[in-house]
UniProtKB/TrEMBL annotation:
EC number(s) stated in the UniProt entry for this protein: 1.-.-.-
The protein, known as: FAD-dependent oxidoreductase
Translocase among keywords: no
Pfam families: DAO, Rieske
Enzyme class: oxidoreductase
Rieske domain location: 414-501
UniProtKB keywords: 2Fe-2S, Disulfide bond, Iron, Iron-sulfur, Metal-binding, Oxidoreductase
Keyword Iron-sulfur among record annotations: yes
UniProt cross-references to InterPro entries, sorted A to Z: FAD-dep_OxRdtase (IPR006076), FAD/NAD-bd_sf (IPR036188), Rieske_2Fe-2S (IPR017941), Rieske_2Fe-2S_sf (IPR036922), Rieske_Fe-S_prot_C (IPR005805), YhfW_C (IPR038010)
GO terms of molecular function: oxidoreductase activity
UniProt-listed Gene3D superfamilies: D-Amino Acid Oxidase, subunit A, domain 2, FAD/NAD(P)-binding domain, Rieske [2Fe-2S] iron-sulphur domain
């Protein structure tokens, strides 16, 4: 079984961009080369701005390539949760904004002739008898005039109640972003890969974006990194970082289900759909979420997902397994726009698991805001907003969780153990001379020894035994076994430690 997303198996490896190795000056510096960054670069460069996209790894191979590839207008946390906090006008605006973004994706695919397996599909919401969400969903959909159908008796999965939305879609998100990047790269739109941003410095008349080998001077900088980089605590304290998992499988039959399926079973949600390319057919399932860095055993979450599909489909073999990250906003709406009044930095974060559509919407809103044009959705997603009445409960819960993790790890004693005792391929947090260190033993027996304190806010990282990473339970930063940042708000790698073994 491949450890990595199904989308990465169909990556166009002929598409590559250079590393930035010298200082440059542009109008807009975009940090992040996923769907938000590339979509924003497209719109800004089309309007005449000189743009540089700075991607730490490969374009599209971060969060975008670890998503479901589903495109829909409702939201992950359902219409009923949105209606519990906002009036019908706001709920309608959210749906309309997501329709506009979905249409923009389809227009790009048509205009640039991007081969990404785009396909219109219905979205099915359904639940078992132990869950009570669908009745309220139908009520809200009726109130905002969002058309739906009742599920038919020939529905391919077990259910008690549900509804169906037409004209949603699916695609291969990595091929889409690679195709879009290739189409827009020009003298006016430069894309750089393997270019890690270590700091962003905002001055009165410009922003300086620092990489290991260069400084980018720009009028504006955009954090298109899923969550803002650095100490942007007005966002990190209102976002809950979560990981969930994806698996792909081959079936023994040709009865792959057509559509996007969201099933709620005793309040656990699983997303299922099929994918075909080059004569190969796959079943994809996503679910089993948990707070980043807080799983007792990450592998158990994948087993939960496998058990779900094995009970409902005739599985021949599992082919891929991967994890994906999302940030859930306390008031249910993303933060898109200037990080604060008159700032030269812009953010786009809090997409939950709805980021493919929200990332495209963010590009539209940010481009209009930079150009000084009115956007009908700017106000409801305004990044500098404050909604204490709508976010207080979630704000208190998330920050109590962070405080609990910090205090728990503060009192962690660890083992002053012999590092030789760690099995190959395993890791442990140990204490040496009063210092907490993160130790990973490679298969060849050599050790990677790092500080166990996250470089964002000094929370202690935890080992992810599925993805071989060090994950921070406070604000979601993740690091590989060399200490380099994989994702999250941290700018800098974990400190390398030299000890006498």
């Amino acid at each position: 079984m491949v450890e990595g997303s199904l989308w990465n198996s169909y990556s166009d490896e002929n598409i590559a961009y250079p590393r930035l190795e010298g200082d440059i000056a542009v109008d807009i510096a975009i940090v992040g080369g996923g769907i938000t960054g590339i979509s924003t670069a497209q719109l800004l460069s089309e309007r005449g701005y000189k743009v540089a996209v700075l991607e730490a790894k490969r374009v599209g191979k971060g969060t975008t390539s670890h998503s479901t590839g589903n495109l829909y207008v409702i939201i992950d946390q359902l219409l009923s949760s949105l209606k519990s906090k906002y009036n019908e006008e706001i709920v309608k605006k959210v749906i309309l904004s997501r329709w506009d973004a979905l249409k923009k994706i389809e227009q790009n695919i048509d205009h640039f002739q991007i081969d990404c397996d785009f396909k219109k599909q219905p979205l099915f919401l359904f639940e078992d008898a132990n869950t009570v969400k669908m009745l309220e969903e139908k009520k809200v959909a009726n109130k905002i005039d969002l058309a739906f159908f009742e599920l038919s008796k020939t529905f391919p999965l077990d259910y008690d109640d549900g509804l169906q939305f037409e004209d949603q879609a699916q695609f291969n998100p990595l091929l889409y972003i690679q195709g879009l990047a290739k189409a827009i790269e020009s003298e006016n739109c430069k894309i750089y890969e393997h270019t890690i941003v270590r700091a962003i410095e905002e001055e009165e008349e410009r922003v300086l974006v620092h990489t290991p080998d260069a400084i980018v001077s720009a009028q504006y900088a955009i954090h298109a990194t899923h969550t803002p980089k650095g100490m942007e605590m007005q966002y990190h304290t209102t976002l809950g970082p979560y990981r969930e998992y994806g698996i792909a499988a081959k079936l023994n039959s040709v009865n792959y289900p057509e559509g996007i399926f969201w099933g709620y079973y005793s309040d656990k949600k699983y997303s299922v759909r099929s994918y075909s390319r080059g004569g190969e057919n796959y079943l994809i399932a996503v679910g089993s979420p948990h707070k980043v860095g807080q799983a007792k055993d990450n592998k158990e979450h994948v087993e939960d997902l496998k058990n779900f599909v094995q009970k409902r489909f005739d599985i021949a073999k599992f082919t891929h397994v991967w994890g994906g990250q999302n940030y859930k906003p306390a008031d249910l709406l993303p933060y898109i726009g200037r990080k604060k009044t008159n700032s030269r930095e812009f953010v786009a974060t809090g997409f939950s698991t709805d980021g493919l559509v929200y990332g495209s919407l963010a590009a539209m809103i940010l481009t209009d805001e930079i150009e000084g044009k009115f956007n009908p959705y700017e106000d409801i997603y305004r990044a500098a907003r404050s909604n204490p009445g709508k976010s207080a409960e979630k704000f208190i819960k998330e920050n109590a969780n962070v405080a609990g993790e910090f205090l728990k790890d503060l009192s962690f004693k660890g083992d002053d153990q012999d590092l030789v005792g760690i099995p190959p391929g395993e890791a442990a947090i140990v204490t040496r001379n009063g210092e907490k260190i993160a130790v990973y033993k490679k298969e060849d027996g050599s050790l990677s020894i790092l500080s166990a304190l996250c470089t964002h806010m000094a929370c202690m990282v935890h080992w992810n035994n599925l993805e071989n990473s060090w994950d921070c339970p406070c604000h979601g930063s993740r690091f590989d076994t060399r200490g380099e940042v994989i994702e999250g708000p941290a700018f800098n790698p974990l400190k390398k430690i030299e000890i006498d073994k």
